[in-house]
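Weekly modeling sync, notes
Attendees: AB, CL, MP (scribe)

Item 1: holo prediction request
CL wants a bound-state model with nicotinamide-adenine-dinucleotide before deciding which constructs to order. AB pointed out that an apo prediction alone won't tell us much about the pocket. Agreed to run with the ligand included and paste results into these notes for async review.

Input as submitted:
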Amino acid sequence: MRIVIAGGSGFLGSHLSDALVARGDQVVCIDNFVTGRRSNVAHLLDQDSFELIEGDICDAVHVDGDVDAVMNLASPASPKDYSAFPIETLDVGSIGTRNLLELARAKNATFFMASTSEVYGDPFVHPQTEDYWGNVNPIGERSMYDEAKRFSEALTFAYHRTHGVAIRVVRIFNTYGPRMQSDDGRVVSNFITQALRGDPLTIYGDGSQTRSFCFVDDEVRGFIALLDSNEIGPINIGNPGEFTMLELADLVTELTGSTAGIVFEPLPSDDPKQRCPDITQAREKLGWEPGIDLRTGLERTIPHFAAELGL
Ligand code: NAD
Ligand code: UDP
């Protein structure tokens, strides 16, 4: 297949590019590097099956030749990043998504939308099933991201219903692994970076809030299973192992040998109290489930951060 990946130089996009190139697909990566890095795909640049286009998908998107799939991973993704780029985040979820849907329509290609567990907001249904409509503050401090993704999902389904575009919508739950940026502000990046530097780990709130962390290789395998299926989604791809932030801090402390302890800081507004995917659909419809538990995934991730920090 020839696959366009918008946001292909980011954390998830670069691992997806690796996996698709490895199985023999042609990848055209479009990225404006607002949060991604050229170095994430530098090792692919000398391959004939990989092409990098520097560009913003909010501008007109042109790709020559046949395209079988358009995968939209372009968006600032961490709370720190989308707070720094609120208008850009809303633009990429609306204008950018529409430009890619038009590209998919023109090329008769499948459109794959990387949505998020944030569409469930601070959820009243737990674990989250795909039929839950969510509890999102439309004007809150996370709204530029949550509502952009909800709009992207709506637009994707409108193109499917109106123009017959083949679609796949994945709802991604917190994913971690090598190539995360040490300064992206996410909890896994913060805790590992702090522990390696000998700083105390910053717990926001009382640390009782939960997240469910998926290792990047499992997540990308789920994307490809969905892309190759006939399912339109939305479908949750995430690891149902659920941890409090205190439990995560304990595990990172143990694995790094940190002795600096923890400090408590204020909880950001609208921070979801609990999050865990129900992956029944992924199991039954895609034959997918994660295989890497949090301890194993962190053991594979910590050396990446150590190298990035020069430790
Ligand atoms: P990331 O920031 O590393 O990657 C996003 C990429 O999109 C970056 O390379 C960035 O430069 C690019 N980009 C942003 N705006 C663009 C634009 N207008 N034009 C072209 N490129 C643009 O983030 P990530 O963690 O790899 O996330 C990838 C996708 O998955 C995002 O859409 C995100 O919302 C979604 N997602 C990620 C997670 C997670 O835990 N990592 C969870 C839920 C959803
Ligand atoms: N968090 C924390 N300390 C940090 C960074 C984040 O306790 O240094 C908390 C944050 O408040 C949230 C959870 O960890 O409850 C996950 O945060 P992250 O930004 O990684 O992901 P998201 O909130 O988007 O799921």
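Recorded for review: The chain has a mean pLDDT of 98.
Action items: CL to compare against the apo run; MP to circulate these notes.
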